[in-house]
Amino acid sequence: MKKCYLLHAILLMPLASFAQPANDDCANAQVLSISNSIITVPFDINTAVISNQLICNSTSNYADVWYKFTMPYNGNVNIDSGNGINNFALYDACGGNEILCINLRGLLPNLTTNSVYLLRLFRTASNASDPANQSFTIQGFQEVTNDDCSTAQTITVSTNSTTVNFEIGGAHINNEVGCEGSTPKTHADVWYDFTMPINGDIKISSGFSINNFALYDACNGLQIGCSITNGLFQNLTSGSTYKLRMYRLSSNAYYPLFKSFNISVDSALGISDKSQNDIKIYPNPAIETINISSAFPYEKIEMYDILGHQIKTVYNTNEINVSKLSEGVYILKIYTPKGFVSKQMIKK
């Protein structure tokens, strides 16, 4: 009899139910506030309605939740969800145009001030109940003033190293060719100009490979050189003004570290033609090692490839191992108490 009563009680108990997320459809999208600070947004997608939908050119059974935000300025928005099962699609309105799709993390580029955007976070049905990474971060980046060559920021260069801080997260995203090859890629860039105070070279160091540099003689002019991370742009003329483009792949534009570079002038003044001839490198071309012969002391030697990328620096030696270098032309800058001497070396 007790078993019958127990069964009857169980049958009369209300079944547990799980409510749908309030922002399960675009019309009820949760409002987000975009700012320059990183905002963490928790979400619950476990009980979202599963439906067969076309999202980002793929039709499948998806669960989704919706958000909307108004851009406070022209610029970009970065999203990071920390897990590959989270996907995002950006729209200009409910039922409107799909602007962009990203997986895991990415930059929503070139958004306009006061425009309202709809953000859809979605997972495949098989991942909807996965408890991992049920939050994402969102951060806005305001458009930068030196986003174009015509509005380049002027910097002063000298033989003393100058540190230039930059913000690139809000730069306009363009599909352009960079130092890394001939195929156009999406880049963010900022621009600088400077006037050479003396004849010599410009040396740049940024400390991380996501920073790239290209030097031009004018806006839309001739590209003088291109370099990744660190670079040397040679034989620049006193009194001439040059345009420096600093750029990153769009996927790295938001990255919060290494947002500065050092720039300085290396002067060839004080090195006479005779002194140039008093420093010799041999054999040239070289296969294994090169030797340096000098009539006067030198402090260090820097080696660059033909694109201006710094390969190595050595001190207090008259022999350099080049066996592991690729075949090609390299530049040696040999520093003396009076200045530096540039020598060309061919690796076979």
TrEMBL record:
InterPro entries: GBD_T9SS_assoc, Secre_tail. Pfam families: GBD_T9SS_assoc, Por_Secre_tail. Residues 281-345 form the Secretion system C-terminal sorting domain. Residues 22-138, 145-263 form the T9SS-like galactose binding domain. Residues 1-19 form the signal peptide. Keywords: Signal. This is Putative secreted protein (Por secretion system target). The lineage of its organism: Bacteria, Pseudomonadati, Bacteroidota, Flavobacteriia, Flavobacteriales.
